[in-house]
Amino acid sequence: MRLRHIEVFYSIMATGSLRRAAEALHVSQPAASKVLRHAEQSLGFALFERVGGRLVPTREAEIIIPRINYIYEQMVSLRRLTENLRLGRGGHELHIGCVPSLGLSVVPKVIKRYTEKAPGNVLTVDAMHGADIVSRLLKHDLDFGIVFGEQRAPGLRLDKIARVPLVLLDSTLSEGPVRLQDIDPDRWIGLSENDPTAWAVSHIWRRLDREVSPVIRVRTHYMAAELTKLGVGCTIVDAFTALHDKTLPKPLMLDPPMSVDCSVVYREDYALGKIAQDLITILKDEFQDLLAQFEPDGSH
């Protein structure tokens, strides 16, 4: 397939019709149709079937969609790079991924400080779960990621940058620390089973010979925290989530204390450049400033 074939195919998949794809590409519908027909002739199989007035991808098209998406994303990235060079930015672009808790708390502050220090560089930040960050790194879609827990994979390097306390949010309690065995299991709001916090809590409960099934399970710390604010139940989240919203229940330390490692993860065959290292330095500073707000007596 030629690049023009890929553009038309991608646009049809994204818009759902040949007409809207042509509009997105700023070409006439007959011109887009001609490119699609030439692509199918070159490949030797159809890419779409017309069903009920809509273009539906064929089985062969479904198989090649992941590759098409990857190539198209690389094309967009190349355009961004050349645009940066044209504007005299030196091509300094950084694409990072972070877990949602950090994307709504620490990372925006880091970005603000960094852009003030180096306004000519371009940052792209995606908030996603740890497993997705690992997947994107392995596909060369990210320069580095910021994750909680042991998000390891062959070919990736993990550098720990902070140990983040875990805290209890419970609108019915006001004093800590709180023992895990004293948490009401009938009000427990759990996190996704793939979340490092969920792993840590489940491990301790197993040691206490307790089987606790969440009454509600959510994928993000922020949703769990918001539910506690509404009085729906109680949960354990990272300290950054608890500090971000002052209207949440008072974060209470646990007895014994619990924490989760926060790390930078990147490819072993990819040397982090100066702009990445500068951003990580600012990230560490922000972590220290926020973690200093937590006192050992269970308050903050």
From TrEMBL:
Residues 1-58 form the HTH lysR-type domain. GO terms for molecular function: DNA-binding transcription factor activity; sequence-specific DNA binding. It comes from the Bacteria. SUPFAM superfamilies: Periplasmic binding protein-like II, Winged helix' DNA-binding domain. One of its GO terms (biological process) is lysine biosynthetic process via diaminopimelate. PROSITE patterns: HTH_LYSR (PS50931). The keyword Transcription regulation applies. InterPro entries: LysR_HTH_N, LysR_subst-bd, WH-like_DNA-bd_sf, WH_DNA-bd_sf. Coiled coil: none annotated. Keywords: DNA-binding, Transcription, Transcription regulation. Pfam families: HTH_1, LysR_substrate. Belongs to the LysR transcriptional regulatory family. PANTHER family: TRANSCRIPTIONAL ACTIVATOR PROTEIN LYSR. This is LysR family transcriptional regulator. It comes from Brytella acorum.
